[in-house]
Amino acid sequence: MRIALAGKGGAGKTTISATLARLKARAGAQVVAIDADSNPNLGTALGIDPELLARSGSLPFSLVSRRLGSAALTAPIDEVVRTHGLEGPDGVRVVSMGAPGHADEGCLCSAHVTVSALLSDLGGAPGTVAVVDMEASPEHLSRGTARHADVLLLVTEPYFRSLEAVRRLAELATELPIETVAVVVNKVRSAAESEAVADFCDRHGLTRLGEVPWSDDVTRADQAARPLLDTAPDGAAVAAIAELSTRLQQTVSVR
Ligand SMILES: Nc1ncnc2c1ncn2[C@@H]1O[C@H](COP(=O)(O)OP(=O)(O)OP(=O)(O)O)[C@@H](O)[C@H]1O
Ligand SMILES: [Mg+2]
Questions:
Q1: Which of 6, 63, 68, 73 is most enclosed, with most CB atoms within 10 A?
Q2: pLDDT in tens, 198-255
Q3: Alpha-carbon span 119 to 1, nearest angstrom
Q4: Domain residues of the chain, as ranges?
């Protein structure tokens, strides 16, 4: 199952991606976490040593051949993940799309194509769960980087602008062959907020698959630069992400 997470800036994509990835690994899956944000944070959220992250490279563009009009990895997927991935807690392997090294350097087209090819080949790896943490921009959809995801989770805060961003992303996603597109509401503080989001989703034909409460556990973990799953494993936010993981298993036909 290949799960991509998108949404407005700061909605909670990285927090949910990292926690979901580790919960899937604990449940027995081989998990590849892909940091597809050019301002990468997923490694730290998973619990990988920041010094190790700083020393490690990102996916080289030479991994992809663009001959014959389509992009394909030039090496077997297992080898790519083994060679270019870092192993994190619970055995999750993380690979990074990379960040610009210099100002005025140009676009990141090749990095997007590399993520897309990686995701495509992960589809043929049985028992593997890919979790892709995307950047806060519709570019992953307009470029089609996420086209090989089986599930697109649109993470939103319970506020109008965040919901509007998700509505626009959902519209773009209908033009890609993604089997399941669903909303995950994060930072919910009250039943009224939950109901307002449900109402918005109903009006716009959006399916809700998960709801994560506002929790000081999350901000505390972030302040300490530690994974939520390690600092508050029994808290309400982790419980809600575990429920999301179960729902994904029940809802998505691809394993
Ligand atoms: N359920 C929650 N309760 C309280 N704070 C949260 C919750 N989820 C996320 N946060 C906080 O919101 C901020 C953004 O979270 P996160 O980095 O996961 O979002 P993001 O969507 O990945 O952001 P970006 O668009 O910058 O990549 C962080 O400070 C995080 O600690
Ligand atoms: Mg993020």
A1: 6
A2: 999 999 999 999 999 999 999 999 999 999 999 999 999 999 999 999 999 999 877 7
A3: 10
A4: 2-251
68 CA from centroid of ligand 1 (Å) = 40
Edge-to-edge strand list for the sheet holding 2-7: 86-87, 93-96, 30-36, 128-134, 2-7, 151-156, 180-188, 208-213
Tokens found for residue 154:
């649109």
CA distance 78 to 83: 8
CATH 3.40.50.300, applies to 2-251: yes
CB of 219 shorter than 6 A to ligand 1: yes
CB 85 less than 6 A from any atom of ligand 1:
no
> What is the token pair recorded at 242?
């575990």
Asked whether the beta carbons of 61 and 49 are under 8 A apart, the reply is: no
Ligand 1 geometric centre to CA of 125 (Å): 30
pTM: 0.94
Element spanning 240, H or E:
helix 236-251
Ligand 2 (ion): which residues have CB within 5 A?
A: 13-14
What atom in ligand 1 is closest to the CA of residue 8? 25
Ligand 1: residue of 5, 8, 14, 15 to mutate (most ligand atoms within 8 A of CB) is 15
What is the amino acid identity at position 118? L
226 alpha carbon – ligand 1 mean position (Å):
13
Q: What does the DSSP assignment read for 82-111?
A: HHH-EE-GGG-EEEE----SSTT----HHH
